[in-house]
Every structure is written in structure tokens, then in C-alpha cells.
Amino acid sequence: MDKAIKFLKDNFSNFDEPTIIVACSGGPDSMALLHLCISIRDACNLKIICAHVNHNVRSESESEKEFVKDFCLKNNVIFEYMKIENYSDDNFENEARIKRYNYFDDLIKKYHACFLLTAHHGDDLIETILMRITRGSTLKGYSGFSQVVEKKGYKILRPLIYYTKEDLLEYNNKVGVQFVIDKTNEMDIHTRNRYRKYVLPKLKDEYANIHEKFLKFSKTMLVYNEYVDKQIIEQKKEVYYNEQIDINKFLKLDNFIGSRIISSILEDIYQDDLMLLSDKHVELVYELIMSSKANSYVCLPNGINAIKEYNFVRFEREKLLIDDYEFELTETVTLPNDKILRFTDDINDNSNFICRLNSEDIKLPLIVRNRRDGDKMTVKGLSGSKKIKDIFINEKVLMQDRTLWPIVTDSTDTIVWLPGLKKSQFDKKKNEKYDIIIKYD
Questions:
Q1: At the N or C end, where does the chain have fewer CB atoms within 10 A?
Q2: Chain centre to alpha carbon of residue 224
Q3: pLDDT band for position 62 (50/70/90)?
């Protein structure tokens, strides 16, 4: 762990008694990070605060809290704890991340800390870059994540970026650090898990230290992004001011420069949430600007909307405008109609509010979206397909409810469930083979 230690000592060197917040879940990565900080505590005169977050989605969470708390007690580390009591956003992972980092911000202020340390490692960087390349992103987004992030009054440090998961497991074994295992990290329903289980091993077969190549790629992309930003800074000021785009001035720009300015604006808005963005979102804003409509809008991730009003486009959070959505189905998704879709354990309910699926019959990941023109599904127990529009009519769904009613599809856009109304041919009985259960409530 020499590179990580040098990286930390270099960052701590300008502080007599640096106070650090270490984000620790209790897993092998964060426990390795916490132990590493303890090992250099005396040499760097550190005050260490361990921040543990209970995401409140697994039964093991309470025992994991006690595990981390006990470790801190034995090693004279201050233990701080927060439990997320409820979720309301349309994306569980995103909302959990926001709540987690808001909590870290509070601890930074409470202890006047200089640094927040997270356990992101080299494999995490590979996964992030590959996922963004696959779905499309901005120039900065393709870099994955930075080893150092400048925040207001402190820095986020990721010292484990030089190492793989295997490296960290070997470190824990060598120094005798125990840890807990989150079983959901093995579930194929999560996109990142599939990259981790099936793509990474193939890359490492080609080159064992592939993480070093991706780290170099990440740094190169950040340098290029910084250079391009410097070239467009004046042009951006000319067309984007008072948090809105002047369309008349924007139309005079070269297409590449215009797209790059939109990317820069979105990067400023989303900051560390670049995983939510793809190149599609840049295209949507560009098309909105070029549209002949005087008044229009497009929905962007995390409740942000780009709104065109005559000669200007502005960005704001306005959930009331949402009438079109599409999300990857994660552990818990709160929908725009205020209902919830979530993965669950075995349950006796056989109503239309429960769906059992066999992942071998469909193409993951699962998607939840609202209705599109021409949507059809093969209803369980019936021959042939039936229009979603006709199902709504037959089930007497109110017109105002149809727009936001959720439809669950696989990644090929095949409808596998109409929650609360109809099951498809893919739904399984309790005595049949299935490995996915979803509940709508």
C-alpha cells in the first residue's frame, strides 16, 4: 500500500493535525482504508472519524453497524452513524448517494475536517468508465471519477485507486482485518455487478494490471476536458448567463462548441452525479434549443428540466413537469405517481401487485417507464398480444393516471409486467422457477 500511503502523506503534509472523515461500510474496501489510516495516524498526527451509513434496505445492516462500531472502539476511532429512514426520489441509488454525502458534509462541518476519504479502488474506476462508455457520457464523465475532488472547504480523497479488489483482500488478510460481505454485490440485477462479475475478469485475462491503464486513461481524459473547458470559457460566458442560454447567440456557434458548452453546463449542474448523464441528454438540450417551438421543455435526470421560453433556455428542478420517464429498476424506485416498485423476498401474494420472473427468460436490466404509443404486451393466460391502451380502458384507469402508470420491460423493451393491472407470459407461479420478485405498492 506504499502508493496510497505516499498519496495520503503528501496531502496531509501541509496540516499539523489534520482531521479526516473516513466513509466506512464495513466491507473489505472501506475496512482496508480505515485500517490504513490508523496505521499512519501517529506519523501524520491524524484525528480519524469513521462515518457509517445504514441504507436501511437489508436485514444485516444493524449487525454491520455494530461490527464497525466495535472495530472503532477497539482502535480508538470516533464512530459516527446515520440511518436513512425513508426514500422519496425516483432513483434509490441516486437518492441514497445524495443523503450519504449530505451526511458527510455535516460531519465535515461538525469536526472542522479537512478531508473526506472514500474507498473507491481501481476496479471501481474500470467499471465506472465502461458503464459510461456503454451508455454514453460527457468528456469529463468518460474519465470515471477523480482521485482528488475539490469541495468547498475540504477535499475528497480516493487513495485506493491504485489497487484492485484482490489487492485489498490480500492486504486485509495480511494485516488481519476482518470485514462484512454485502450479498447484494453478487446480484445480477445490478448493472455494476454484471460488469464486475463478467467483464472485468476478461479484461484482466488480457492484462493483469489493466486498472493501471484505466487510471492513465482517466487522468488523460481529465486533462483533455480541462483544456477544452479553457478554450470555450469565454464563448460560454457570451451565451450562458443568469443561469440560462441565450438562443440567438448560441445559434452563431459551431456545432461542436455548442455541444461542448451544453456538456459543460450539465457537468456544472450535476457535478459528482455524472453517472446520471449520457450524451443523449446533451442531444436533448441541443434539439430543444434548435426546435421551432417557442415554448417547450425536456426532462433530465434527478428532477432537472431544461425549459425553453422564447429566446432562452433555463435549467431548474420542477417535478410537476414530469410526464415522460424511464429508469433502470434498482432495489427501490419511487415513481412519479408516488407509488413504489421494489425487489422483495418470497411472498405469498399472487395479486397483480406482485411479479415473479426468471432472469433466464428475459434480458436484464429491467426498466420501468411510462406508456409509449403502440405499446403491447402478451397477457398471461391469453393468446396473442393486447394493447396497453385497451387494458387501461378495460380496467377503467382514469385518463389523468394513464400518463404516469408504470410499465416494466426488459432491456429489449419487451413488456414483462403492467403493475397493479396485468401480468405477462413471463410471470411465474410459486411452484415454478424464478429468481426475481418485484412488488408494486
A1: C
A2: 24
A3: confident
C-alpha–C-alpha distance, residues 32 and 179, integer Å:
9
**Which cell is 299 given?**
426532462
Total number of residues shown for the chain: 441
pLDDT digits (tens, 9 = 90+) for 70-83: 999 999 999 999 98
Mean pLDDT, the chain, integer: 89
- Please, what's the b/e burial string for 386-421 (b: 16 or more CB within 10 A of its CB; e: otherwise)? bebeebbeeeebeeeeeebbbbbbbeeebbbbbbeb
Q: Is 261:240 a contact under the CB 8 Å cutoff?
A: yes
pLDDT in tens, 92-148: 666 777 788 889 999 999 999 999 999 999 999 999 999 989 888 878 888 998 899
Percent of the chain with pLDDT over 90: 59
Are the C-beta atoms of residues 247 and 311 closer than 8 Å to each other?
A: yes
Q: Please say whether the beta carbons of 392 and 402 come within 8 A.
A: yes
Tell which wins on pLDDT, 172 or 324.
Answer: 172
Domain edges within the chain: 2-120+158-206, 242-321, 326-440
CATH superfamily of 2-120+158-206: HUPs (3.40.50.620)
Tally of CB atoms within 10 A around 302? 16
CATH 3.30.465.60: does it fit domain 242-321? yes
Q: Is residue 160 predicted with pLDDT exceeding 50?
A: yes
Asked if 339 and 331 count as a contact pair (C-beta separation under 8 A), the reply is no
Which segment, 69-73, 295-299, 330-334, is predicted with the most confidence on average?
69-73
| Predicted confidence (pLDDT) at residue 321 exceeds the cutoff of 50 | no
Averaged pLDDT, 395-404: 82
Assigned CATH topology for domain 326-440: Phenylalanyl-tRNA Synthetase; Chain B, domain 3 (3.50.40)
Question: Is 2-120+158-206's fold the same as 326-440's?
Answer: no
What is the pLDDT at residue 357?
94
pTM above 0.70, yes or no: no
By DSSP bridging, strand 304-309 and strand 240-241 are unpaired
Angle (CA) 287 292 297, round 5°: 55
